[in-house]
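pls design
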């Protein structure tokens, strides 16, 4: 989790120092674009048009409580599998990275990565978002594994 937060914050500082007020930089034939953006909302700007107090309570306080709950579960659960711990750690690390931004950057998150081919492109995102998505994928995989025949729920890996 600390590695995720550290990588996220380091890359965001680089984005601020190297990309702010600069044109987008393209790599790999335009597949990867580095461009500076600040997102007041959640995933793909969702909730960015909400009032500032609602954004704070939903995206800062609410997410903070959710992250705390996830961490308490990961630490105190006796039946949790390793894959779940890794998944929760990635999700929590990404969430903490974005939460740090919100607390230090007037409610906004620094984004700078964009992938695509031609006009088919992702939204602009950051390393924390990648960790959250990978963690979510691992969580789905872990849930599928625990439901498959022959998987023992009582025996952690």
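designed seq:
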């Amino acid at each position: 989790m600390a590695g995720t937060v550290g990588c996220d914050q380091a890359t965001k500082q680089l984005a601020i120092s190297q990309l702010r007020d600069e044109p987008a930089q393209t790599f790999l034939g335009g597949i990867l674009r580095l461009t500076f953006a600040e997102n007041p909302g959640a995933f793909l700007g969702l909730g960015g048009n909400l009032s500032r107090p609602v954004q704070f309570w939903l995206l800062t306080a609410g997410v903070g409580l959710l992250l705390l709950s996830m961490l308490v579960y990961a630490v105190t659960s006796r039946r949790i599998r390793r894959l779940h711990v890794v998944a929760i750690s990635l999700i929590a690390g990404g969430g903490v990275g974005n939460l740090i931004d919100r607390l230090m950057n007037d409610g906004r998150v620094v984004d700078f990565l964009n992938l695509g081919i031609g006009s088919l492109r992702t939204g602009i995102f950051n390393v924390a978002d990648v960790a959250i998505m990978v963690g979510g994928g691992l969580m789905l995989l872990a849930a599928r594994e625990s439901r498959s025949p022959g998987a023992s729920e009582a025996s952690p890996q």
